[in-house]
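# nightly structure sweep
# worker-07 picked up a monomer target from the shared queue
# config: single-sequence mode, recycle default, output format = structure tokens
# input follows
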Amino acid sequence: MSDHTSKQFDSELEAVRSSVLQMGGLVEAQILSAVECITSGDMVEIDRVIANDKAVNRMEVELDERCSHIIARRQPTAGDLRMLMTVVKMITDLERIGDEAEKIARMARMIHEANKAHLPRIELAHMASVAVAMLRKALDAFARLDVLAAAQVVRQDLVVDDEFRAVIRQLITFVMEDPRTISRTIEVLFIAKAIERIGDHAKNMSEYTVYMVKGRDVRHTGLEEIEREAAQ
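# output follows
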């Protein structure tokens, strides 16, 4: 590969990395807006979040195609190939996070169309803030090739899982005490599950970053093994 061609290749890889972060920024904004709509009931904003999911989907398809073309034309090896494979996996998780944000917005609409009648008083803000922080750190770990930060995201997922289980217990109590809350309870449960899934996807993205940097697939190996690999 000539020096000129090598520079072009580096430029293509950098453009792909930047596009992943741009997609991540859009998805993060989607989550924040959707969660805000739970409280505000802003129907215009709810519609915007739902409509913007199409933009997230387009970005996934475009990035997937760009990676495929680069692999076919450049035939990258070692670290460059791992980076492109990581991008293909990460954008799938980002697209699914966008789907979860859309789901939260749809549940917010149903809650407010019912005028919040018999709505269980469940605190979801902290759980959502942790999930968003996980996504932000996962993207930063990817950008900085920071495996230690990636491992921290995997550990944070335990916090989101614990909070999700606590929400389920609270919702069961509300339904037992007042069966009229069943409809709103189901909608709140869907929101909580969507937030929990956002954490799962951020965790996946962090595991891909460890693979990209270290060359080892750490999926299904457990937190301790991931932290050990990151520390080496």
